[in-house]
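If you are new to this repository, start here. Below is one unmodified record pulled from the training split, so you can see the exact layout before writing a loader.
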Amino acid sequence: MLVVIRELSAAFKQLFTTTRYRLILVGLVLIAAMISVSELAVAKLFTKIILDEDTMSQTKFILFIIGFFLFFGITRAGHFLQRIYRVRVFDNAFKASNSEVVGAKENWRWSLAFELTNLLSTCTQLGVIFLFFTYLDWRFGLINLLIVLAIFQIYGRLFQHQIEAQRGFVVARKNKTPVANVVRIATRIKSGETGILISGLAMLILLAALIYLSYTGGISQSNTIVLFFGLRMQNSNFSNISTGLMRFARALTHSE
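And here is the target side for that same chain:
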């Protein structure tokens, strides 16, 4: 896990050399994290509408419906604007950088910036999801934290092995030693899919814990549904991190 933190931090400092653009990037990452919380809030509002439909007044029901669609629309628009605006941020940050990068390395620098932003945003989202889980039920939040740390430990090893493999491919290219495309592509995809498989198994453990806590009355029905949606979002984030780390390793080694 430490190797992931070290490489992400080094890439962050290398790509964004000025304080201004570092702060802008941090802001974009935080916006992405807030959007994830908003989506969980939307899920919470949806369950409130469905489960309490028979007990709430017609006026309150209409207000909840309007709030649901308005909130959902804002989260989608925010997600779109955040992803579009970062392209301009990258361009300005690269122009403000003192380092001159040309040719193929320029393309790899752009790829590295995109993968870095995606990974930072997704990891921040995981942190916010953990806080949301803990807010709903501290016991489930603690179990989730232990599982997340274990997954990242495994991801760190996969990531380190991928960096070594990708650097080997770079050396082979410089030495004009042919490496089959199937080998280069399969190496990255296998590592990414291995991470996805591991996160899927971890989700089964968390689902079992959620069902147990719900069955014993430790978690309310509405919170159980929201936590289920949250687990699906968290698992999707882990899938993105797993494949994103392998693409990041490729962009990192080719941009060195």
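Two things worth knowing about this chain: Helices lie at 2-15, 19-51, 58-96, 104-136, 138-174, 181-215, 221-255. The chain has a mean pLDDT of 83.
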